[in-house]
Amino acid sequence: MSSLTAMKYGSSRSMHNHLIEMTNMATKILRLGMTIDDYFLTHFILHSLPPEYGTFQVNYNTIKDKWSLNELSSKLVQEELRLKNRGHSLNLVKHEAGKNKKKKIKKKG
What we know:
This protein has 109 residues and is an all-alpha fold. It has helices spanning 2-6, 15-31, 38-47, 54-62, 69-102.
């Protein structure tokens, strides 16, 4: 149980693999006779996320209808892709901005 509650998502593996690992741990705990319902597993999953997922967590907590584990998983995988794409976009903007600074306009006069 402590492994499940202490698990953290790291970018060294995919969100999909992280969710599978957490679900597998919950299944092992069930086999030992302890009950973990979807609400608690969802809480553990959300707690395992790094600060970059803060907006996702706030949005989840503000919705009235809670998602199933499958819905949560698919939305987290989408969020992982969004965050990765945002990172690539920021790098591109930074790189392009650096190029523009090097160009100087010569005035004739």
